[in-house]
Design a protein that fits this description.
Blueprint (H helix, E strand, L loop, with lengths): L11 H21 L10 H22 L2 H6 L1 H18 L1 E3 L2 E6 L4 E2 L1 H20 L10 H15 L4 H18 L3 H21 L3 H8 L13 H12 L11 H4 L11 H34 L3 H25 L17 H19 L7
Antiparallel strand pairs: 1-2, 2-3
Helix pairs in contact: 1-2, 1-12, 2-14, 4-5, 4-6, 5-6, 5-7, 5-13, 5-14, 6-7, 7-13, 10-12, 12-13, 12-14, 13-14
């Protein structure tokens, strides 16, 4: 049963920062989808609001369960994760050339999103059990295999972007767990070699072009470079203070594709300008700082590793999403945490914050 005394340890700044980012997301989604095919101006905003209520309920639920209990469930969560990812391959709904969703009739469920938080928990459990004993090169091989199995299943959907999130998050956790730097360098080299081979032999021509088009989007103004060109116009036209909410021409006139999901930052930058973009980055920076602060005071290595994994996940998605919006990184299908439209993504992010709050609340043993 939840002990009310734990609320004294609740990291309210982290909770408030999360609320602020969710509210920003809801406002920008409302603007980005004001004109849509449903004819209902706030159709997407209302759907996102439902997920916000559901997500914060899940956050409170996960925060109320002693995370050591979740620790013990890690092996079962890992098996569940694999079963869900396999279900997508056999029974998943296909859209936009990928098979990533399970149709639950009431809503579409994307297991790859939940695979992120499940992998963080299960990998933290595996690494914590070794208690930093990674002197031998092969001592971390079981951890790598633990990560690669769900990563391959996600690649088969195909979902390269989420696979990268898993790998980058796992690398950060491995380093934090005490894997030797020289071993990490070997893993990094193998990853680079594997990525190069996958680029030339595992991708089709249009997929390779999608990864490299950011280098010269002007060559493909109506083709692969269209999204990025429109995004750059949106970001650049926002200027210092923006055009004002609900007044962005790129979003309101539907020039910008995926404006409420992958390119939500472009909408925010156009309508709120440099001020809004910097404010958003400040909110994210403070959020990640609070998570790392909890990692530093967690009472066990499992809690520390979970927090590091969550911080790494948010940081990578933030850098990639904003990087692609301003043309310095390849166009990827990664959402901006808490801000982009999407129920599975939002729920996963809020569960991750709930887990971090849980660890922070239980950083001290209760004294009678």
């Amino acid at each position: 049963m939840f002990d009310h005394r734990l609320w004294r340890n609740l990291d309210f700044p982290l909770l408030l920062l999360t609320c602020a980012l969710v509210i920003v997301g809801l406002v920008v989604i409302s603007s980005a989808t004001l004109v849509n095919i449903s004819g209902d101006q706030f159709f997407y905003a209302r759907r996102q609001a439902v997920w916000i209520v559901f997500g914060f309920s899940a956050l409170l639920l996960i925060a109320s369960i002693d995370y050591t209990q979740i620790h013990r469930l890690a092996p079962y969560l890992y098996v569940l994760n694999l079963l869900l990812l396999l279900a997508v391959l056999f029974f998943g709904r296909e859209a936009w050339g990928a098979q990533r969703w399970l149709d639950l009739k009431i809503f579409n469920f994307q297991p790859a999103e939940f695979a992120k938080i499940i992998l963080i928990v299960t990998l933290a459990n595996l690494l914590a059990a070794r208690e930093g004993n990674f002197d031998a090169f092969f001592s971390s091989i079981p951890s790598l295999a633990h990560v690669l199995l769900p990563t391959v299943l996600i690649l088969l959907q195909p979902d390269l972007d989420t696979s990268l999130v898993l790998l980058v998050t796992a690398f950060g956790m491995l380093f934090m767990a005490g894997v030797k730097s020289r071993h990490m360098h070997v893993y990094l080299l193998l990853s680079v070699i594997g990525s190069v081979l996958f680029y030339f032999f595992g991708l089709r021509d249009y997929q390779r072009l999608r990864l490299t088009v950011f280098l010269s989007p002007e060559k493909y103004p109506l083709g692969p470079g269209y999204q990025l060109n429109q995004s750059l116009i949106a970001v650049g036209s926002g200027g210092f203070s923006g055009k004002g909410l609900f007044d962005g021409t790129q979003s309101q006139l539907a020039f910008l594709p995926a404006q409420h999901t992958d390119f939500i930052f472009s909408v925010l930058a156009e309508e709120t300008g440099f001020i809004g973009a910097v404010t958003l980055l400040l909110l994210f920076s403070l959020l990640i700082f609070r998570i790392l602060r909890i990692a530093a005071v967690a009472r066990d290595s499992f809690g520390t590793l979970v927090c590091v994994g969550v911080a790494g996940m948010f940081t990578f998605q933030l850098l990639v999403n904003i990087g692609m919006a301003i043309g310095v990184m390849p166009v990827a299908g990664l959402t901006l945490p808490f801000v982009s439209y999407g129920g599975s993504s939002l729920l996963t992010n809020l569960l991750a914050v709930g887990l971090v709050l849980n660890i922070g609340m239980r950083r001290h043993k209760l004294m009678f």
